[in-house]
Design goal:
globular; single chain; Sodium/glucose cotransporter
Length: 470
């Protein structure tokens, strides 16, 4: 009963805050009129939007079969890329200001003077983010099922209703502030689970109880190469996922972005250590018979831990933490996916469409995308982590190469931009189906995309000089 009451209060709080932050303009809806002035809000919202139910459920459970390599590589890459992301964040903010960009495809279009590249990137985002949403909906439904005692379908319907309502009402301002609050809940939930497991295992002595094969860096049931690739591919998103970058666009000034670089990496480090360690440490507390059901479905491990380890009431906090992880990511993804379709593609086809009409279409299309993703989540055979690593990896590859080169190399051209998109997307998809499974497709995408970008840029005329920014 406590879980149900807290969930109702949580939903009411989200809806009230969304109503308070309701936006009537397209600019306010998609970039909060660039007026967010609190570094902690952007930094922690960045963390919350990045870590989804896929991380809370999939990331926590994946260590059960992948062993210690998942902890080592997962934490290392997330911390390293989080620090790097906020080092370059002020320059990304300055570019968004310079080009008055409201979306990532729009930023790259204006940097490279390429409408075709903008539409192509928007189409890739629309496809891959929809797949990513399927994985998150799966995790969210599993969570509701495990902690509320309802069916998987009922869990899906609850998730659809919550995300659709506060997306339609509030836009990016609501998403950022609610993600900030959700991020705080996520940190509390992650720490509770971690300390609860440590306490049950007799403190740090828990590591002495973990079997040697689980602690081997060669990998347990999953080869270390696959774990290394998945950790790299997923954490690369910290540098290039559009649903994170728009939060930087919304900052009032460069100072806000710089100081957000304190809160973001610290919160990401705490969360990654706590969550990614759980799947390994459970071997030091529970018997192989107790863990056997989760060896084939690691995504169910976290609800089991919450109900097994924590006193009644505290498991409700974990419920809210996992729900927060799902809601914060889904709402941001729906926003950037929808604006990619309406602002980037619709405006390309019909440039004269007024902002108020684009805003109405953006709200309606967002709800449609939510429903479509939830429908495909009705039957998802894969574990969450592999599904997320591929979908997130494709988007990260396609954005990362033209974004980083665009920030620091003025020789890049529109031909190089488009060539990198085609090469990155095509190579990742082909490698996923036909390549060596021990080498993650994202590595291939980065190599092919970079070669195509450099080749296309150097083979085409030098672009007009880009004005220097302070």
């Amino acid at each position: 009963m406590i879980n149900q009451v807290l969930l109702v209060l949580y939903i009411l709080g989200i809806l009230l805050l969304s109503l308070k932050l309701r936006q009537g303009t397209f600019s306010g809806f998609v970039v909060s009129d660039r007026n967010v002035m609190h570094p902690a809000v952007i930094g922690i919202a960045y963390m919350a939007a990045y870590f989804s139910a896929a991380s809370f459920l999939g990331g926590g459970g994946y260590g059960l079969i992948a062993g210690l390599p998942w902890v080592i590589w997962g934490v290392f890459f997330h911390v390293a890329f989080a620090c790097l992301a906020f080092i370059i964040a002020p320059k990304i903010w300055m570019f968004s200001q310079k080009y008055d960009a409201k979306t990532v495809p729009q930023l790259l279009e204006r940097r490279y003077d390429s409408q075709g590249g903008k539409v192509l990137l928007a189409g890739i985002m629309l496809l891959m983010y929809t797949i990513y949403l399927v994985a998150i909906f799966k995790g969210c439904a599993n969570l509701f099922q495990g902690l509320l005692g309802i069916t998987y379908v009922q869990g899906l319907l609850i998730a659809v209703a919550i995300v659709a309502l506060y997306y339609v009402i509030g836009g990016l301002p609501a998403i950022i502030w609610i993600s900030f609050l959700q991020g705080l809940i996520m940190l509390v939930g992650a720490v509770l689970l971690y300390t609860g497991l440590i306490s049950s295992g007799g403190g740090l002595a828990i590591w002495d109880m973990v079997p040697a094969d689980i602690l081997s860096m060669t990998g347990a049931a999953v080869p270390w190469q696959k774990t290394f690739g998945m950790a790299f591919a997923i954490s690369l998103g910290l540098l290039a996922l559009p649903d994170l970058l728009i939060m930087l666009f919304s900052a009032k000034d460069k100072r806000v972005v710089r100081f957000a670089g304190i809160y973001g990496p610290i919160s990401i480090t705490i969360y990654a250590i706590c969550i990614f360690s759980l799947g390994v440490m459970v071997h030091g507390v529970f018997s192989s018979e107790q863990l056997a059901p989760f060896m084939t479905n690691p995504d169910g491990l976290i609800p089991f831990l919450a109900t097994s380890l924590l006193p009644r009431g505290f498991d409700s906090i974990v419920l809210l933490a996992a729900i927060s992880a799902a809601m914060s990511t889904m709402s941001a993804i729906v926003l950037v996916t929808t604006t990619a379709l309406t602002s980037d593609i619709l405006r390309y086809l019909r440039p004269a469409t007024p902002d108020d009409k684009v805003l109405r279409i953006t709200r309606v299309v967002g709800v449609i995308i939510i429903i479509v993703s939830a429908f495909f989540a009705m039957d998802v055979p894969q574990m969450i982590v592999p599904l997320v690593s591929v979908s997130m990896g494709v988007i990260a590859c396609c954005v990362f190469i033209p974004l980083i080169f665009g920030l620091y190399w003025d020789r890049g051209t529109s031909i190089g931009f488009v060539a990198s998109l085609v090469a990155s997307f095509g190579s990742v998809v082909l490698w996923q189906f036909f390549g060596n499974p021990l080498i993650h497709p994202v590595f291939i995408g980065l190599i092919c995309g970079t070669v195509a970008y450099l080749g296309g840029s150097l083979a085409s005329p030098r672009p007009a000089p880009v004005a220097e920014m302070e």
